[in-house]
Amino acid sequence: MAGLEVRDVSVRYGAGVAGVTAVDDVSLTVAPGEVLALLGPSGCGKSSLLRAVAGLEPLAGGQVRYDGADLAGLPVHKRRFGLMFQDGQLFPHRDVRRNVAYGLETLPLTRQERDERVAGLLDLVGLAGYEQRAVPTLSGGEQQRVALARALAPRPRLLLLDEPLSALDRQLRERLAGEVRAALVETGTTTVFVTHDHAEASAVADRVGVMDRGRLLQVAAPEELRTAPASDRVAEFLGLRA
Ligand code: ADP
Ligand code: MG
């Protein structure tokens, strides 16, 4: 199938009885252009699953496939996936333009093409004209927007976002969640977005996968999760039950 397919994936840390099963036999798909949120409490295995998809964590079982091909043995940098974390990890000594252009340096683009792409991405994330700003002069929200532009710049075939808004205050987070969704939809970017915040998951995603203790409990559109939660645990986690 086209897009991402996670098939019976498990991730374990340590061996034997001392080992932890962080991801337990999870299967899911993300269609081309779709935004899927992975939602669940801290420690439920969201980051482990994301890292396994990226190729940063070995699989204890199962397969990660993209556009029908098994990615086993394909190293991280050859997957053409983009990654972004809670702390966008911008290069502090590069200006905004050179941060966003980072992933373009190895592509066969003229300087003008590269500058145009950077300008277009900054416009997309609401930072038009910020090219020459120094990273330490940016607010936390602005830094995460730049990190998003940088992650989108090489046009990754899958974007993996791990709690990209969690370090921001709630008000800003809610506004940015809508803006992130708009940028992902406009660029048609196939995305997995990890969060522990159900409002954020609903604002960002076409479908939400609810995780608990390494397992995927339900995957559904936000509205369907609210109206037809598959279990008490899902309802509880969405704040529908006390
Ligand atoms: P989440 O991102 O949902 O908070 P994680 O994937 O980070 O969850 O962690 C899932 C489980 O795996 C937790 O019990 C955590 O303690 C454990 N874990 C995560 N990373 C490691 C590691 N490198 N070594 C051992 N255990 C780990
Ligand atoms: Mg995590």
UniProtKB/TrEMBL annotation:
Alphabetical list of Pfam families matching this protein: ABC_tran (PF00005)
All copies of domain ABC transporter, residue ranges: 4-238
Transferase keyword on record: no
UniProt keyword list: ATP-binding, Cell membrane, Ion transport, Iron, Iron transport, Membrane, Nucleotide-binding, Transport
GO function terms (MF aspect): ABC-type ferric iron transporter activity; ABC-type quaternary ammonium compound transporting activity; ATP binding; ATP hydrolysis activity
EC annotation from Swiss-Prot or TrEMBL: 7.6.2.9
Domain of life: Bacteria
Alphabetized CDD domains for the sequence: ABC_Carb_Solutes_like
Keyword presence, Isomerase: no
GO cellular component: membrane
Signal peptide limits: none
Name under which the protein is recorded: ABC-type quaternary amine transporter
Organism the protein comes from: Promicromonospora sukumoe
